[in-house]
């Protein structure tokens, strides 16, 4: 029978002189009670199971004291002496002798409940656990020498219970038991010490800081035992790598932290993989036995499901690859033979002429094919083998006798497609790092064996962008075995040799394939050295994840090592740090960088931006690259025109006519005159000058938190800037109308549109009373910097009415909102059924090329024509106009306004669904693909820290979103309008992930 609270109360009062609140805690065999004493201290009273010996408890106490007197940075429970000085009290409960101990309580949250468990946190956990291991290395106690089922050294006992499992589960358990038994001799010889023995996910405490959590403590030493020291990290990995797509990545993080405290031997790391598995096998076996015996016991079932899940994933990791990864994490060569091979290679180099006797090969030229290389253009170009071949030939023309070679450890754009994608612990990732060297020689060129060897694999990897026909030779020299891989061969090469054939050095082994047979690449040989085939018998990775680059570098050494000729590697000119420092030194200080760790973006592709590692970011923040980053049609149009002519507008040219004509077709007929300029700021500068010239007044009405550009006049109507840090305050000629925010603004409710619009009239009246008139009003139709504020329906109609009645000009800034983004309408002003006198456009007009436009009525244009020439060096040049025309054509051809509507409606409804689930989401608003939502508490108070956290976490998960609004708590979504429903689903999926995280729960 369980001990009652009354019993506990008597025990603590009698033996420890403590009173206070008592709460039972879940426990395995012991009974545990949380005591909050009236003196303000917290403890756990542990009443040991009657089977537990005094010696064992004495051992646990000794561990507790040992760890607490040594200065370690992680908290562990301290045993508290009773009034008589004893650390163990003997009591009798219902006639049974029981031992009682009081230990200190450690505050914190249980590891199992933490979300997210980041790489940093895992590293820290590893380090803290490593500290405990280190501290216990020289600790001894006779009771530590014991046997128990949870001791990994004894885990072979599980072999007697395999009958509890069926099919796949049985096969998994048997497999790991077999590996363990095979390794047993090596394992038995590993160093031993007293270990915690059960650093599981319910025995780890994390601090209460939700944003920057740290490891607060490790407790429950009840399973401490003298055993192989490596067991502790194996157990920790088994639990702290659960519930992630890539447990090996999680394991490596733990190990990286652990090895800072404890120096692993190579023999220990050799055993680690199977030990992790054996801990899980023990867990599932224990659970199966209990289920059989007791029908149900919740406490034991807790980790059973995740244990199976991890076992299944762990099984898919090749044991040697795991070992190489562990070695790399602990500072060893990932592959144990790496140094040996390097030494051998340096003494046995051969000329590339041995492999390519028919090539001229006077020199070797390196071709840059890294992600940011401009040589191969965009996806549509580099994925077309004919275009690549043509470009390579052009490149080769400069040096016709050179052999073009490249690629070892190069991060390439070719592999940023779905075929190379997988889900990592931080969102999607791509195997972008090339592991071989490519030799760009013509189709049908013969390839000869650089070394004597035996055919190990010959196989047709008949998939798009795979190797096509591929050959692997095995080479054995003295005490070294390595492999060489030849990919992208002709189909005929498959019948030159067969598996097991011996080839001599210099013997013909294959021919270079053409695109139709070689996996659809420009003809080349992919040559790769491999030290371990990792059980592959048909294919072998030619590319790897950037995060695993160092491991693969060791498994697949640099082909340069075996050739006498030097094949250089392409390297970025500057590191990220150098770029940051250079910017600081030589670029304007007020230039900002996004994110705490800035992104180094080198390629744009549709809705994605891609960094130097080939990590693809779904870009939901970019309304400049409107029809998609580097849209092939727009790029080609610009390139073609740039190759022919670019001048100012003082000559006749058809492009400006074509563009003007196309753009006017998209505007109401009243807006019939264009001035073409180069930026949104310049457009607004001109629009303001027009209004002021025509009205002969300087006074402008503008909306609070509006932004209209960086020129003097534009800045002067941008309260987003002049009222912000470093701003010079509102100029006398600017009159700010309150942000017409119907959700959290000055006025809400059904009449708020009129309330907000009345400020225009009251400002006009105030000016009038001083004898002043107004030049006009400038505003965005959805106020972007204001936080995607959608003004009430009648707002603009009423404002325009007041302004026009006072003789002012109405300017609509469509720099962010225009060109079909709204979905329902091509321009945002059309949502309000108004026609401005001037419309300014920018960002999307040139899809990233500097192109902006001022459109106005004939009346405005005529009135502005005072005889003063409007000259603009670049505005309206043929390249800009060709690009602008192309953008309009793409919007039309690809039906992108409709896409903005369809995807926008879907995305908004999904955001509203999330809003119902996550109270931290305030208003969801916007039109088409110009959406926003607020991060608020239950009283609508903004939570900017959470908004910034969200943006940073989304970046880690591969999605770029931006924050804005006067309180920086609004998430803005304004992607290229090629954004698809799948992209929207991806965005929602990742948002849901982050909304589930601890810091995003509504604060109490
Ligand atoms: C609404 C609005 N107007 C004008 C501008 C200025 O455009 P640009 O940066 O092209 O000069 C911006 C730029 O962010 C803007 O958002």
Total count of strands: 40
Tally of helical segments: 28
Ions, cofactors and other ligands present here are: pyridoxal-5'-phosphate
> Which structural class matches the secondary elements?
alpha+beta
Q: Please, what is the average pLDDT?
A: 95
Lateral arrangement of strands in the main beta sheet:
12-13-17-24-21-20-19-22
List the helices and strands and how they pair.
Layout: H1 5-16, E1 20-25, E2 31-37, E3 42-47, H2 54-69, E4 79-80, E5 89-93, E6 96-104, E7 109-110, H3 119-136, H4 167-188, E8 192-195, E9 204-206, E10 215-218, E11 225-228, H5 230-240, H6 247-258, H7 266-294, H8 298-301, H9 304-315, H10 319-329, H11 338-347, H12 352-355, E12 363-366, H13 379-382, H14 385-397, E13 402-406, E14 421-424, E15 427-430, E16 433-434, E17 437-439, E18 446-448, E19 453-461, E20 468-477, E21 480-487, E22 502-503, E23 508-511, E24 525-530, E25 543-544, H15 549-555, H16 576-586, E26 601-605, E27 608-611, E28 616-619, H17 632-642, H18 654-664, E29 671-677, H19 680-695, E30 700-703, H20 712-716, H21 719-722, E31 734-737, H22 752-769, E32 776-779, H23 795-805, E33 809-813, E34 838-841, E35 852-857, H24 858-864, H25 878-893, H26 896-917, E36 921-927, E37 930-935, H27 944-956, E38 959-960, E39 962-964, E40 970-973, H28 981-995
Parallel strand pairs: 12-13, 28-38, 30-31, 30-32, 32-33, 33-34
Antiparallel strand pairs: 1-2, 2-3, 3-6, 4-6, 5-6, 7-9, 8-11, 9-10, 13-17, 14-15, 16-25, 17-24, 18-23, 19-20, 19-22, 20-21, 21-24, 26-27, 27-28, 29-35, 34-35, 36-37, 37-40, 39-40
Helix pairs in contact: 3-5, 3-6, 4-7, 5-6, 5-7, 6-10, 7-9, 7-10, 17-25, 18-25, 19-24, 22-23, 26-28
The structure holds pyridoxal-5'-phosphate.
